[in-house]
């Protein structure tokens, strides 16, 4: 049951109302924003609520069945001081929200709370934001407990894992940034790369680009690969996909869907390795920027080769040459990695020897 003043209750029962919705948003970092869907600024409780188009919220409905009460909100991102980069950075994710209604003709009547809770993940598409205002009952829909899994359910370095990250953390400075924004370079990084790699003999520029090797290569069409260490034609030092692989006992060629016709000439070096499997030291690790526009933000590492770090997604703000970072070793959450790389098998939070579903439903066999 909602508690409102007698004056506001009388106003709501009238044939004509002068109501406006107000939105109080408190970000996780403590920043507060106040908005209203009225066409003028509303000063309520000593604070100003700026007029915006709150968007197109769905109806607010609450049942007695403890169902998760949510409100979908969408609209055009045109609020001063809020950028698309901030939304992509997750600054608005899980912000505390209070949505209430007031009589803008008589603010002394107080407010009627429509919903309190938190925002879900805020997404952007074609200049429009979309999010979900989750009510307090959303907490009851969370799953509590764990399921068996062959891989570890802990995060490397957390309290359940128990590995001290000091020996597995390095720092450095960015020496180059690829145009794809996810491939970063630090020529001083010399930790081990993928265990299986094929040295490049020559590169023929074109669209697609052709890589030449000596002897057989165990790469198939459509397989994700990481290219690293090429000089001159440095723009192809990225994670990409193999295309049209031709391999013989004496030589092999591999096409990649990169247009290199306008790129500098290849001058030597470089290797190609399958992505995943025999991974590099920092694969599945975490890069945290310690200076620059993205300082304080962290991103998971997709692939590592000496001098080259490929991220799962770009940082929310541009990374530039000279920005500093810290980088932690990765863990693929397998028992083998836990044992051989971190000597932490006693804290492994998975069940690698539990039979799979096929084994559990297998019928008896004779003979």
Question: Gist?
Answer:
By secondary structure, the protein is mainly beta. The chain is 6% helix and 34% strand. The protein is elongated.
Would you give an account of this structure?
- Helices cover 6% and strands 34% of the residues.
- It starts with 5 loop residues before the first helix and ends in a 7-residue tail after the last helix.
- The mean pLDDT is 85.
- Strands 1, 2, 3, 4, 5, 6, 7, 8 and 9 form a nine-stranded mixed sheet that branches. Strands 10-22-19-20-21-12-11 form a seven-stranded antiparallel sheet, with no helix packed on it. Strands 13-14-17-16-15-18 form a six-stranded antiparallel β-barrel.
- The protein has helices at residues 6-12, 84-88, 335-340, 357-360; strands at residues 19-26, 32-36, 42-44, 47-51, 70-76, 96-103, 111-119, 123-125, 128-135, 169-173, 176-177, 183-185, 198-204, 209-214, 224-228, 239-247, 251-256, 271-274, 286-289, 298-305, 308-311, 324-328.
- The protein is mainly beta and 367 residues long.
- It folds into three domains: 6-141, no CATH class; 166-188 and 280-347, Elongation Factor Tu (Ef-tu), domain 3 (Beta Barrel), CATH 2.40.30; 198-274, Beta Barrel (Elongation Factor Tu (Ef-tu), domain 3).
